[in-house]
Amino acid sequence: MTTSPYEHHEYDVLIIGAGGAGLRAAIEAKQRGLSVGIVTKSLLGKAHTVMAEGGMAAAMGNVSSEDNWRVHFRDTMRGGKMLNNYRMAELHAKESPDRVRELEQWGALFDRTKDGRILQRDFGGHRYARLAHVGDRTGLELIRTLQQKVVSMGTDVYMECKVLQLVHDESGRVAGAVAYWRPTGEFVTFAAKTIILASGGVGKSWKFTSNSWESTGDGHAMALWAGAELIDMECIQFHPTGMVWPLSVRGLLVTEGVRGDGGVLRNSEGERFMFNYVADMFRAETAESEEEGDRWYDDHNAGRRPPELLPRDEVARAINAEVKAGRGSPHGGVYLDIGTRRTAEYIRRRLPSMYHQFMELAGVDITREAMEIGPTCHYIMGGVKVDADTAATKVPGLYAAGEVAGGMHGANRLGGNSLSDLVVFGRRAGMAASDYVEGGSGPSGFDWGEVESAVARALAPFENENGENPYDIQRDLQEMMQANVGIIRTGDEIEFAITELETFTERVKNISVKGGRAYNPGWNLATDLPSMLTVSKCTSRGARERKESRGGHTREDFPKASAEYGTFNLAHTIAGGTWDGEITTERSPLLTMPDELKALLEEGK
Amino acid sequence: MAEVTMRVWRGDASGGDFENYTVTQNEGEVVLDVIHRIQATEAPDLACRWNCKAGKCGSCAAEINGKPRLMCMTRMDDLPEGTVTVTPMKTFPIIRDLVTDVSFNFAMAERVPALLPPPMPEDGYRMFQEDVERGQEFRKCIECFMCQDVCHVIRDHEENKQYYAGPRFFIRYAELEMHPLDQNDRREYVREEMGLGYCNITKCCTEVCPEHIKITDNAIIPLKERVVDAHYDPVAWLGRKIGRRTKRSATEAGVQPAP
């Protein structure tokens, strides 16, 4: 092997991303005795997992003894509008209870039932109380537990180190990655027998989002550039309840736990409008009147679930429609009220972060006043196409788990299914990558040409003197995507976005960066923008091709779901492995579900 | 829309100085919004660390008008009128501008002997809410490290860092000590290796905690009491002398494999 001109490390398993999926994968590979490196753009423990609030879904049956994996599978498929990879949904439903319990072995402290078991809470789209939680800071508990476990195992963690591109051997297997240290700006190369992408989501390409600066779709983009396929990229979840005021916090998440714990939605006329938006698919299990819904809060057997607890796509569209019809709140949202039903003590105990967040940032006391909320870009269902059992992508040696992987959630993710997704498939990716290494597979070389071209591309903005400020491009991109490929889409707007994205590609090639390489956020953004553009292009192309409305993809010009479109995913590939290469979008048929699983979907319809 | 002057420390390990920026300030904005506006316009290379902008990740700690605060949770309209001064946390070495090298904390995390639970029953552990609540208070910690920043033992005494874990890790040790499942005993270790005795309970850490964890009252003082009990208990003392122990020592505990 050529000697690297840069700092160089070698691992059996290199993990990109240190959220729930990456850390869980690391634990698995470490337990197998392999050498493991984790690379993260931020400090350890700050990944987006930390922001998950309400809980992790697992059919443990601690609160509702009727619950089991079959019902969880059914809820997940129905929530995903049947676009899911059924095998992922099946594995997830079967394995998540064990994944929750093992967290307790590593130190997690979940809230308890009276008899000392893990307490579970109600959430949208879940038929039974299913979410293991710690108040409204479940993500923090998950990431801290995994982080402490990984640290106790002596794992190498490269913090504030951003991966720019994956590297192949001459046969097309994955062979490593090239990255740079944010604190110094120096480059670093990693040779690895396998790589697990666990890099999270893409929400930062939209203006109003609950996502942090990190969610720029790096893993999605790098996988595509490396030869993998992306699917379902048009399926973006707009969480129904983000803060809308003050403007500076617009998009900040308000947990679904508020509704799970008794919060209701009202428009400016005081009406609980969700009763007007119950789709046929959910009518049989949803309350018909406020009285029935109210009874359910006290006794789940005394009525059906209130419509505020429908899946997120349904609620987000309803809120959008109310605001459009002129029944919104002063700042363009609707009202979420829990103070009327619950005592101040209950709210502060169950929802401490929400209480704190509204009090400090908006000056609103949620124990007495209603919150103003509206949809916010929250999650991408789409991602790298993987094999359900192994998390393997099309590229030999490359795996993907967590938000960066596609298929598990179909067209819409149920709340609480993300945290469990991370640990179920993080573990599976770790197992499969370890099998690959132990089986003697691995790269036969390391393409230094790919390293040099990635380095040259990263440094180009320093050479360019009169180009654009990357912050201007980012702001314009966010506004353009929000306006044209947002929660409700039309063919004309999507076409406009696709044309605009070509202009953005040219603008990104003309970025100038001021200052040096050490901890330079402007430069860091310049290296994020190619990923943001790549995922935006896939989302727009998927949105153009999917001429129907399904889950997190709503077309005003095709308002209904079509049976034909329910039989395939839209899969994207890129020519030539370059970030600005031509993207090809094709139909990729769904897996055929075995009859015994099909039968589960019919139950209690 | 008002204008505000921000006095921001710019520089690196070799030195630096304050720079003034006059920028727009909109209704409801927090300090981080204004810092972002400076980045997006005048100074795209202004370094600051942040992630969630919701008070949940603890990345954006800095000293605002001399006090450690999360930039994302400090509203501009809550600060006194006039120039707002933003400096990096003082206790940690500077990387650039508002970003400090907090690796001391990650090194201390590596030295924490892991949880050692009994084997898990098939249907999971049983624990009761009142027993987990004590640990849950400490697990609210978002690792902003402001308690470390403000702690006198290390703020003005770099040399103490090798003997002293600091408030963030005292709550971690207290959490493990009070964990219903844990079978490790770290009491001697916290006293001997982690410098618990250096803390003179001035409660500065508690005052700056953005999660309102009662670090001193609920973690450090009970931990000190337990450590004292273990260390000065004549039976335990005799046990140490004659080399017989009923509980594992912390040094051994450090190598106990967790499941």
Give a description of the structure.
With 605 residues, chain A is an alpha+beta fold. Chain A has 3 domains: 7-237 and 378-438, FAD/NAD(P)-binding domain (3-Layer(bba) Sandwich), CATH 3.50.50.60; 240-375, Flavocytochrome C3, Chain A, domain 1 (Alpha-Beta Complex); 448-589, Up-down Bundle (Methane Monooxygenase Hydroxylase, Chain G, domain 1). Chain A is 36% helix and 16% strand. Chain A has 17 helices and 18 strands. Chain A has helices spanning 20-31, 69-79, 86-105, 138-152, 218-225, 257-260, 280-283, 290-298, 312-324, 344-350, 352-362, 417-438, 448-463, 470-484, 491-508, 521-545, 595-602, and strands spanning 7-16, 36-39, 56-57, 120-121, 131-132, 156-158, 161-168, 174-181, 187-197, 230-231, 236-243, 264-266, 334-337, 371-380, 383-384, 398-400, 568-574, 583-589. In chain A, the strands form 4 sheets. In chain A, strands 1, 2, 6, 7, 8, 9 and 16 form a 7-stranded mixed β-sheet that branches. In chain A, strands 15-10-17-18 form a 4-stranded antiparallel β-sheet. The longest helix of chain A has 25 residues, at 521-545. The model of chain A has no long low-confidence stretch (mean pLDDT 96). With 259 residues, chain B is of the alpha+beta class. Chain B folds into 2 domains: 2-100, Beta-grasp domain (Ubiquitin-like (UB roll), Roll); 103-253, Fumarate Reductase Iron-sulfur Protein, Chain B, domain 2 (Orthogonal Bundle), CATH 1.10.1060.10. Chain B is 35% helix and 15% strand. Chain B contains 11 helices and 7 strands. Chain B has a 5-stranded mixed β-sheet. The longest helix of chain B is centred in the C-terminal third of the chain and has 18 residues, at 215-232. Chain B is elongated and about 70 Å long. Chain B starts with a strand and ends in a 6-residue tail after the last helix. Classes of the chains: A alpha+beta (605), B alpha+beta (259). The interface between A and B is large, with 69 and 63 residues.
